[in-house]
Amino acid sequence: VLPFNDVRDQIISELKSEQRDKAKKIFATELKTKVLNGATFEVLKNNNEKLEFIPSDEKKLSDSFISLGKSDQLIGSLIRSDIDDLLGPVKTFRGYGLIMVNKISEFDSTAWINQQNIIRSDLTRTKQNKFYQNWMSELKEKAKIIDNRKYYF
Fold first, then answer.
1. Total domains present in the chain
2. Is the pLDDT of residue 151 over 80?
């Protein structure tokens, strides 16, 4: 355990970061309330130049979204959404975002059928590699190594 003076700056930085994060979430929640009461994203952006407004961004869920990036919370929210849903505040690497769902593309069953076997084999290969790595690590940890080099030279 390190002395307090050695980690003091890290603790202060972490606490400030948490406070900024809480303030961002509260601000995003207030903005969502304004949108639900009839304000548009454009009006909110015009009233606050620190806000970033992206008019439209169509992506696959596996891709990174403009300004929002890619996060599990964002993908989960989008999967559960319907058209004209207001999502958020959604936590991203840059803060919080509000998302209006404008369009949802239809599920492409033919593409799914074509990719299903590839996805299955990738998941199986990943699982096998993970199992092998864990098994090998465990063997290395339990191994008793004896240095017999003196007998060969």
1. 2
2. yes
